[in-house]
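Tutorial handout. Part one gives the primary structure; part two gives the three-dimensional structure as tokens.
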Amino acid sequence: MNVVLNKLNTIASYAAAISLVIILLVTSVSINCFDSDFYKSEYKTLQTAQDLGMTQKDLNLATNTLLDYLQDKRDNINVEITVQGSKVEAFNSKEAAHMVDVRSLYHFAQILRNMAFVILVVSCIYLLVRLKKGAWTVLSINYMKAAILFAIFFIMLAGWAYVDFDAFWTAFHHVAFRNDL
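Part two.
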């Protein structure tokens, strides 16, 4: 019986640790992806509006439309902007179709984060009831192990992206999306 309970303790502590990493990762991506001030700053630094032949205001409008769509604040990304003196749709049909998939991926990440939160809470409660004061020790040890594994994984991904970003980005799209958009 003790062997089974010890395995449950280990499973619960790893579940909590992995859940915490998922929560932190998805939350971090959400916070940073929807920081419109970051985009404005980068656009200004890179002179993106000038390179695209549009005003900063139109570039910000297109960006905000896209970000609002991903967060369910809009039903579509249809927005007109002026490029080189002509009114055009900011996003073509292929880009709009791709953003439907991106939005679904973002929603999946939010659901995953919420499920991870539930798993984290349930696992912590189980460990606190089962182990009392020793729960935090078991949690912290297994969190460190899980964090190290995640760090190694993300360092490898970052290295791949650094060495050959095009291959990394293409592979990411093949894994995340099932169409040719």
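Part three, for discussion. The CA atoms of residues 70 and 104 lie 9 Å apart. The mean pLDDT is 91.
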